[in-house]
Amino acid sequence: MSNNESHYPTSAPAQTQIQQPGEQESMYPQPEIIKENYQGSHKLKGKIALISGGDSGIGRSVAVLFAREGADVAIIYLEEQQDAEITRQLVENEGQRCLLLEGDLSQPELAATCVEQTLQCFGKINILINNAGVQYQQSDIGEISHGQLEKTFKTNFFSMFYLTQKVLPHLQEGDSIINTTSITSYRGHDELIDYASTKGAITTFTRSLSTNLLKQKKGIRVNAVAPGPIWTPLIPSSFDAQTVAEFGTSTPMGRMGQPSEVAPAYLFLACDGASYISGQVIHVNGGEIING
Ligand code: NAD
Ligand code: MG
After folding, report:
1. Whose CA is nearest to atom 9 of ligand 1?
2. 20 Cα: distance to centroid of ligand 2 (angstroms)
3. Burial classification of residue 111, based on how many CB atoms lie within 10 Å of its CB (0-12 exposed, 13-18 middle, 19 or more buried)
4. 40 lines ligand 1 (CB under 6 A)
5. The CATH homologous superfamily of the domain defined by 45-284
6. For atom 24 of ligand 1, which residue has the closest CA?
7. CB distance 35 to 260 below 8 Å
8. Alpha-carbon torsion (176, 228, 137, 236), positive or negative
9. How far, in Å, from the CA of 275 to the mean position of ligand 1?
10. Closest-lying ligand to the alpha carbon of 134?
C-alpha cells in the first residue's frame, strides 16, 4: 500500500459509502488532516474564516491549519454532525473557536443566515473558502437526470455565488476569497460530466470576480485551488469500489494526495505573502501538468 518515495499510501482499499456526503470517520485508512509536527507561526492571527464543507476532507484540513495559524473558523456542512463535532474539537485543540453551521447551501436563503451567525459570533469575516461540493459518477450523459444536474450545479456552483454575494459587503482590504475548483475543470472527466462542468464554472467565476473586484479597488483578492485526487469522504461516497481502489495511482507521483497536502495552498493564498496574486489557481495534483 505504501511506496518507497513517500510515507503516504499509494491508494486505499476498495470501499464505498452508501450516501453522499460521506463520513470521514468511516474511511480506512483515515485521511491525514494536518502534517505531523507542523508548527504554526501566527500567520492568520486574529482572522476569521468562513469555510463551506469545513466538516471533513479538504475543508476540515483548511479549518485545522488555519486554526493552528491563529484564525477562528465557522464551518458550514450539510448534515454530518459527527464529522462537524470532530472538526470543532480539533480547532479548539489549537486554542481557537469554531462555529458550526448546519444546512443545505443549495438553498439560496442559507447564505444570509450563515453570514449573519458568523458575524454575530465573531464580529467580522476575513476569509471565505467556497468548498462545498458533490459529485455523482455516471458513464453516460443520458443517465444524468434533470434532478442530478440541478443538484450538482446548485450545490457546487450556485451556493458559491450566493455565499460570496452575502460575504462580500463585509470583507475589507487585505481579505480574500478562495474557491475549490478541480483538476477536472481543466481536463474534464468522462464519468463526471456535470461535476466537471461546475468546476469549469468555478474557475471562470474566480477569474471574473477577481478582475471585477480589482477594478473596484477594494483590495480583495479572489483565487482558487484545483485539487487532483485527494483522499476524502467524497471519494468512497461517490465512486464505485474499483475506482476507489485505483484512485490517484495514475498521477505522476503514482499516489493519491491527502487533505493535509492541499490545505497549505489555501493558507498561502489567504496570507499577505500572496498580496500580488489574484484570479489564479494553484494546482495540487501530484505533478500533473495541465497548463491552467
Ligand atoms: P468532503 O465530502 O469532505 O467535502 C464536501 C463537503 O461539502 C461535505 O463535507 C458536505 O458537508 C458539503 N456539502 C455537500 N453538499 C452540501 C449542501 N447541499 N449544503 C452544504 N454543504 C454541502 O469532500 P472533499 O473532497 O473534501 O470536497 C471538498 C471540495 O473539494 C469539493 O468542492 C470537491 O469538489 C473538491 N475536490 C475534491 C477532490 C478530491 O479528490 N477529493 C478533487 C478535486 C476537487
Ligand atoms: Mg463532510
Report:
1. 53
2. 8
3. buried
4. no
5. NAD(P)-binding Rossmann-like Domain (3.40.50.720)
6. 57
7. yes
8. negative
9. 27
10. 1
Q: Is the CB of 234 under 6 A from ligand 1?
A: yes
Q: From the CB of 179, is ligand 1 less than 6 Å away?
A: no
Q: How far is CA 31 from CA 106, 225, 234, 259, in A?
A: 27, 19, 12, 7
Q: How many CA atoms lie within 13 A of 200 on its CB side?
A: 10
Q: Rounded to the nearest whole angstrom, what is the distance from the C-alpha of residue 125 to the centroid of ligand 2? A: 22
Asked if 286 and 50 count as a contact pair (C-beta separation under 8 A), the reply is no
- The pLDDT profile of the chain, 292 residues, written as one tens digit per residue, is 444 468 999 999 999 999 999 999 999 999 999 999 999 999 999 999 999 999 999 999 999 999 999 999 999 999 999 999 999 999 999 999 999 999 999 999 999 999 999 999 999 999 999 999 999 999 999 999 999 999 999 999 999 999 999 999 999 999 999 999 999 999 999 999 999 999 999 999 999 999 999 999 999 999 999 999 999 999 999 999 999 999 999 999 999 999 999 999 999 999 999 999 999 999 999 999 998 8
Q: Using the mean position of ligand 1's atoms as its centre, give its distance from the Cα of residue 226 in Å.
A: 13
* Contact of 213 with 222, CB cutoff 8 Å: yes
From the CB of 106, is ligand 1 less than 6 Å away? yes
- Residue type for position 178: I
Domain ranges of the chain: 45-284
